[in-house]
């Protein structure tokens, strides 16, 4: 602890994580470790496959490779600390370390939100304007949309970091979670959190509501365009190209929205933690599977890679 005037501030937080489940601690560690390894393996494999196969050098797979990169970084911002805490007697993290973890976690999460919106626009351009698709989704625009997603995520996190010096923590210092998130920090602050809550609300509105709204509008146009297709086969193919993205978006936003809309509790309930596990650990693992399972182009790329490896 450090003392500033008449206020004694804490220098460390205690992350309880899953310590309230001692009987299944070993099982939880194995499960989360396996999920983490699978997440890294699947996303890295998909990223390498897209990079190696020239047939996948299209806007859709350019966005997908960046999604895999973000998912690798996103899960790594929380999982290693969570896994190490299973073996540590004291699950501590410095206040500075907690803020840094949240900065990277928030940056990656908001960047992924924006990237999913860019992917929705890509599907809109492909289905609603197929003849102009190549000219609309130019390499310059694709790179700009990806860089814009990253910059938007960084800007959103920096905006929240600006109010962090106003928050002082003088106890208690126990976080009923497995990583540092803004709702828990606001609950533990012993100073006025109005500015921080206002910034968080604005950021949530920008990155959640606006992105979801853009995605919904894109898919309204997509559905209307698909219904104009003359053949059932054409409609089915078009719907299949969008189903993966819609599934990934639904998983990500449903679980994360529950946590942040219920932020008054600090996300400390078991159900809050379960929802957090889903969008921070499970969703990054599922994304490459969702996009690859019924994707003929990915399957064909794997066959070409296997054939090439066989010749070598």
Overall structural class, as computed from helix and strand content, comes to mainly alpha
Could you say what the CATH topology is called?
A: Rhopdopsin 7-helix transmembrane proteins
Radius of gyration: 22 Å
How much strand?
under 5%
Task: Give the low-confidence spans.
Answer: none
Q: Compute the number of structural domains.
A: 1
Shape call: globular
List the total number of helices: 11
Strands ordered across the widest β-sheet:
4-3-5
Commentary on this structure:
- It is a single chain.
- The chain is mostly helical.
- It has one domain: Rhodopsin 7-helix transmembrane proteins (Rhopdopsin 7-helix transmembrane proteins).
- The protein has eleven helices and five strands; from the N terminus they run E-E-E-H-H-H-E-H-H-H-E-H-H-H-H-H.
- The chain has helices spanning 25-52, 59-76, 79-85, 95-128, 133-136, 139-161, 182-188, 194-227, 232-261, 270-292, 296-311, and strands at residues 2-4, 7-9, 12-15, 92-94, 174-175.
- The strands form two sheets. It has a three-stranded mixed β-sheet with strand order 4-3-5. The protein has a two-stranded antiparallel sheet with strand order 1-2.
- Helix 8 runs antiparallel to helix 9.
- It starts with a strand and ends with a helix.
- 36% of the residues are buried.
- The model has no long low-confidence stretch (mean pLDDT 87).
């Amino acid at each position: 602890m450090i003392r500033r005037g008449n206020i004694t501030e804490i220098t460390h937080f205690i992350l309880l994580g899953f310590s309230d489940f001692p009987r299944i601690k070993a099982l939880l560690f194995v499960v989360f470790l396996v999920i983490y390894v699978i997440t890294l393996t699947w996303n890295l494999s998909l990223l390498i496959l897209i990079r190696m196969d020239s047939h996948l050098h299209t806007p859709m797979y350019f966005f997908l490779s960046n999604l895999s990169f973000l998912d690798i970084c996103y899960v790594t911002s929380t999982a290693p600390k969570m896994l190490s805490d299973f073996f540590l007697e004291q699950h501590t993290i410095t206040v500075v370390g907690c803020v840094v973890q949240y900065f990277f976690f928030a940056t990656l999460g908001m960047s992924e939100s924006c990237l999913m919106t860019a992917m929705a626009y890509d599907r809109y351009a492909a289905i609603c304007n197929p003849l102009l698709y190549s000219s609309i989704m130019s390499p310059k625009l694709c790179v700009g949309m990806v860089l814009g997603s990253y910059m938007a995520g960084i800007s959103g996190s920096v905006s929240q970091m600006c109010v962090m010096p106003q928050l002082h923590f003088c106890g208690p210092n126990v976080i009923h979670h497995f990583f540092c998130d803004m709702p828990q920090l606001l609950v533990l602050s012993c100073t006025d959190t109005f500015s921080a809550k206002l910034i968080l609300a604005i950021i949530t509105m920008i990155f959640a509501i606006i992105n979801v709204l853009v995605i919904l509008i894109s898919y309204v146009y997509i559905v209307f365009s698909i219904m104009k297709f003359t053949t059932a086969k054409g409609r089915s193919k078009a719907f299949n190209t969008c189903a993966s993205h819609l599934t990934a978006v639904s998983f990500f936003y449903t679980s994360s929205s529950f946590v942040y809309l219920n932020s008054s509790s600090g996300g400390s309930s078991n159900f809050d933690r379960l929802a957090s596990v889903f969008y921070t650990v499970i969703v990054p693992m599922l994304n490459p599977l969702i996009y690859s399972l019924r994707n003929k182009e990915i399957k064909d790329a794997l066959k070409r890679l296997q054939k090439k490896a066989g010749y070598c």
